[in-house]
Amino acid sequence: MKHLAEIIDRHHRVAFAALLGMLLALAWHNRFIQDDAFIVFRYAENWVRGAGPVFNPGERVEGYTCFLYLVLIAAGMRAGLDPVAASQIIGMLACAGTLVGSYVLACILARSRVAGLVAMLVLGTNYTFSAYATGGLETQLHACLVTAGLALGASEVLRDRPRPGTLALASTIGGLAILTRPDSVLLLLPMGVALAVRSSVADGNGRARVARLSGLLIPAALLVGSWAAWKVRYYGDLLPNTFYLKALASASLTRGLFHLYSFVTSYWLVAGAVLGIWMWRDVLPAGDRATRVLVVTLALWMAYVVAIGGDFMEFRMFVAVLPVVAWLVVRIAWALELRARLGSALIALVLAGSLQHAVVYNRLAHPDENESVRALEAHVLGGSENWVGVGRALGRDLGRDSSVWIATGAAGAIPYYSGLRTVDMFGLTDPWVARHGIPYSEVAGHRRAADLDYLVRRGVTLVIAHPTTGRPSEGPLCMRDFPLPGWDAQEPGRPVLPAGVRAVEIPVDSTLRMVAYYLAPHARVEEAVRSRGWRMREVADCVER
After folding, report:
1. Residue 10: pLDDT band by 50, 70, 90 thresholds?
2. Which of 345, 373, 401 represents a domain boundary (last residue)?
3. Which of 507, 495, 498, 497 has its CA nearest to residue 535?
4. Residues 103, 16: Cα–Cα separation, whole Å
5. Given 317, 351, 373, which residue is the final one in a domain?
6. pLDDT reported for residue 339
7. Is residue 171 domain-shared with residue 266, that is, in the same domain?
């Protein structure tokens, strides 16, 4: 191992470029797209068209938590890019930035370019990290900004006199990270506190200390403060709608703990964690202030993920701290190598864990616990759901008529491609559902659902709920085959749907149809029945409740 390290160190530029290229190629191979991304795309499209950053024109609701990413997607769309392509460009560039940031972080802390390359290898081969280079959400941009902020912070924490210019740059990046995801505050807080303490106690006169603290605090405060003031003026609220959806519905600590357990075990990180605790004095020597801060950062973020009940997407919430995990794996392996010459074995074990996760995880069933990235993509492009196809079919047959309202729990691709006004049945973009919806599940983002009375009050025309496609059938439709979220929580004996409500079968392509409940009469739907091949169906409540 020592001889190999010497060779790599001599040719580190070639090794760095080759490794970075291979890891980016792997990320592109693992690319995917998911439904939630199209919520951001719809906000961006409305913004570009002049309606403002809104989900439905005329309704100012902050149903996203990724303002900076939304701005970048909107800029890409204004330049003529398809939003999926724009998201992939942003994601891949951010992935490259995160990989470089992890390399720099490890080089700073270990003072070894070999350690930097190994950290980059551990990070880039992690399947979750690699897949979320795309996916359409802000995940990788968030990771890039957080990693850059932590790397700059680590460099200054280790200095006797932190540099005001570098502190200002770290503060600016931290502010941008918060604009990308507000919960970045938790990831940046430990390093920010450490830098503030270091800046206060470092040598120098009072003016130097003021300069350091000003550089650390003012750029982030200006960015975040300006954004917050704009939010209050535009949306009428400092907090996003998603906060009310999550804060007013209790999270399950059991789910959160299980989510963390699944992540650690799926990637074979248990051995590394046990060894790290066993050798903690070697892993966290007294002089390494930066690594200690990173451990606190990781612990705080893990506690946060547990507290919010985890996530229903495959370990997406861990991507931002995976560079920290990669560095700790390298540090533990380094200590193990000095003790027992087994550092290479630990690195090999972690790489093997990533490989088995990539091969096995997408083939497992994860009912309600954690959808793999391929399961997420299957909603959008899969044969039995094909939400892109459903959205296009609705837009094609209804002409993107602004007087037609649909309600769906799949609030991404279907509203985006149909162009129809939409009630998000799970409340991410709907303030009433977020605050007053029916308690539905413990799954993050699905804890409340719209009730029937609310859909009627909103004048919803078609209720799609969880859309699936299939071949045409005969006879009445059973509601158990096309359930509405939370419908079984209604009063016993109360009809699930108003009397006389029927369903329509909507052709998605030449062989598959999608079912929707026809809640309120509309001329566009009647025309689609006459001339577009839509078919009316009777509805039967054939479920014992």
Report:
1. low
2. 373
3. 507
4. 9
5. 373
6. 85
7. yes
- Answer yes or no: is 545 within a domain: no
Q: What share of the chain is helix, strand, coil (3-state, %, to 5)?
A: 60, 10, 30
Q: CB of 44 within 8 A of CB of 82? A: no
CB atoms inside a 10 Å sphere around CB 113: 18
* Cα(50)–Cα(73) distance, integer angstroms: 15
Q: Are 416 and 42 in contact (CB under 8 A)?
A: yes
Q: Over the range 446-483, which residues count as b (16 or more CB within 10 Å of their CB) and which as e? A: bbbbbbbebbeebebbbbbbebbbeeeeeeebebeebe
CA gap 72, 79 in Å, rounded: 11
113 and 90, same domain (yes or no): yes
Q: What pLDDT does 201 receive?
A: 80
pLDDT bin (cut points 50, 70, 90) of residue 251 is low
| DSSP classification of residue 506 | E
In the chain, the number of structural domains is 2
Tell me the two tokens of residue 238. Answer: 């400092």
Q: What is the DSSP string of 103-128?
A: HHHHHHHHS-HHHHHHHHHHHHT-HH
Question: Which of 94, 107, 190 is closest to 151 using CA atoms?
Answer: 107
Q: Which single residue is written with the structure tokens 């505050």?
A: 185
Q: Pairing relation of β-strands 477-478 and 469-470?
A: unpaired
Give yes or no: residues 299 and 231 share one domain: yes
317 shares a domain with 466: no
Q: How many Cβ atoms sit within 10 Å of the Cβ of residue 343?
A: 19
Average pLDDT over the chain, rounded to an integer: 89
Secondary structure of residue 307 in the 3-state scheme: helix
Which H/E stretch holds residue 407?
strand 405-408
Query: Distances in Å between the alpha carbon of 208 and those of 152, 197, 465?
Result: 19, 14, 60
The conformation of residue 362, written as its DSSP 8-state character, comes to: G
For residue 410, what is the DSSP state? -
Q: Which helix (H) or strand (E) holds 199?
A: helix 184-201
Regarding whether 428 and 353 lie in a shared domain, the answer is: no
**59, pLDDT greater than 90:** yes
| Residues of the domain holding 96 | 2-373
Residue 136 lies in a domain: yes
- Report whether 542 contacts 479 (CB < 8 A): yes
Residues 174 and 264 reside in one and the same domain:
yes
Closest to 483 (Cα-Cα) out of 449, 526, 534, 460: 449
State pLDDT tens for residues 385-407.
889 999 999 999 998 888 999 99
Q: What is the sign, positive or negative, of the torsion defined by CA atoms of 19, 21, 25, 27?
A: positive
The CA–CA distances, whole Å, from 451 to 289, 376, 438, 479, 485 equal 52, 25, 6, 15, 8
The answer to whether residues 339 and 393 belong to one domain is: no
User: Do 314 and 416 fall within a single domain?
Assistant: no
d(CA 118, CA 330): 7
Structure-model confidence comparison of residues 487 and 141, the more confident one: 141
Three-state SS for 411? coil
Decide if 32 is inside a domain: yes
- pLDDT value, residue 433: 92
